[in-house]
Write a structure and sequence with these properties.
Oligomer: single chain
Number of helices: 4
Distance between the termini: 135 Å
Keywords: Carboxypeptidase, Hydrolase, Protease
Number of domains: 5
GO molecular function: carbohydrate binding; carboxypeptidase activity
Strand content: over 45%
Organism: Infirmifilum lucidum
Structural class: mainly beta
Number of strands: 47
Protein name: Carboxypeptidase regulatory-like domain-containing protein
InterPro entries: Carb-bd-like_fold (IPR013784), CarboxyPept-like_regulatory (IPR008969), Ig-like_fold (IPR013783)
Radius of gyration: 38 Å
Amino acid sequence: MKRIVCMALLLTLVGYITALTLAGQSTPAYYARIDYMLKTDEPVELDFGSKSVITLSSTATPPGYVLESFVVVFDGKAPAQLVPVKYDKVSQSMGRLTSITSYTGEVTIGANGFNGTVKARLITVFRRTVWIPLQDNITIDTSEFKDTGLSVAVRVSIDNYAPYAVKSVVDPFGNELTSPSVQSNIPAGAFKADPKHVEIDASAIGFGKYTIALTRGEEYKLPSSFLVVEDRFTETTIPAKTSKSYSMRSKAGWSPLGFIVVLYSVSPGPLSSNVMVEGGLVDLAFERSEEFEVRGASLMIPPLLMHYWIKAFLVYGSSVKITNNEGHDIQAMIIPAYYKEIGTWTPKGLITTVSKRDVADAYAAYIVVQVPSIATITSVTVPGGQKIEGVENYTSSWLSTWRTIVLEKNEAAVQVKNGDSVEEGDYVFTIVWKPIKMVFRDMKGNPVPGVQVSMSGPLSINAVSGADGVATLNVYAPGVYTVSARFKGATLAYFTIGTLMDTEFNIECKVYSLTVNAKNALGGPVTGAIVTVNNGNYSQSLETDSSGSVVFTQLPRGTYTVTVQYKRITTTAKVALDGDQSIDINTGILFDLPFIGPVTATEVAAVSAATALTTALFFRPRREKDVAEIEIS
């Protein structure tokens, strides 16, 4: 592995989520997943004549990357005797092994009686993932890999349910990669695109900055599980120097997905394939061509220069235009594809039901499942009860024909009809979801236990943070979720998650300590008083200690009524809490008499005033009486 020059591509989710929650943000935050992938490809010859068991290992993982996969790809098909011993997945074609995949970097193969050599390629892929907020454009910079000699590809993924779609892709040299004329000048497969994904082989196209333009709208939302039907194909001839256009017919209950367009030609003369396919989003998926000479034992029949070519396109949209710029006819095969949502998400997986009526008019039909990064598809059980697992690409005999099943980490496609053969019933996909974790901490970094978290969206989920401040929410359906976190009668956080990422949501809570010091009239402590705080939705009571104090911890920001109750004496105050505070509350208690209880200074003053008044009233009549008696005598 050669030297790698890495630039830090970081997304500080903590700061984003904190700002989001404080603002009470309800607009979904959507992200694009960007995977930078480094690939090594090493040809090997496996000698089972000298070893009955061979173990193969990936190359060392470069800093900043993780191992995505280590794959042993056989030239053609492996001998039937070979048995994978240590692996994660295999690919098979009609019962024969074609590749073995490991996610840990080690593959072990047993000879099982085979005594010979096998040619294979060891392909190791390393991945570095970053997340970029979705806006009008996404910029992908591959400049760091220039002159490293590495094989570098970039994959961009957008959630199906996000209201965004790929509009165009411009390479570092200003070329529009979705343009048919540009695609004709780069290797087929070096650029791949659909409305939600882009793959770029930067080693083949060039290093630098790529710009992906996005378009936004509710109409660009797609289901995460759907049934795709491919209508019976149309074969036609495109005459020289002409064009033909095709539009998808209306199909009740179905939405247009696009076309598979296969163009081909066999003709005398030098190789030339000047054709153009135009549509909403065009991807040249496959290309093969050859120029050859037909010659016999002598020149009795002079040699004939011939060529053939074939090109296959995926066209997304409801119409396609094919232009033949050649001087001879070409042949075209056109297959329209439609889709409709299917399936029910359950804690045990996705259950999809297919009936013959659903696919009656189709030549081929597939169930397609595409899940977020926090989910992994592990298996599918077909209606007949067979559980398909541990495979990646699986083609086998089926009914009176064959079918293909592809099970990747985050997406799957299962063929349910091929020609006249169809298997109706329930298809159950087992999907493992990583839980979403909300980590609540106060301003000092301490965990906040007891936060009540609710998520609403495709599912309704509730959880409470534990002693570690972590609330774990078990999501099992893709989509947009609104999160509300309440604690002690107040809302700590309110935000909407658009993209379900494999990350923790770290939420800094505005909760504070409130110290209440209960004082008597002389400023001394009042021990044993009951202090209650109340914000209208939550109340808590504590008893003062020997210093007359209580400390309420982790109270949410807000206005509180603070009540100090000591026997028959009640004192109330209002506090606007916006940080750690300490307040003194004067209860007015002057002394506490046995059998009588606390007496406030106000009461003492009132008693003194009453006593003075009584005395004055008592003595004043007697003086008047005495004076009267003196006057009589």
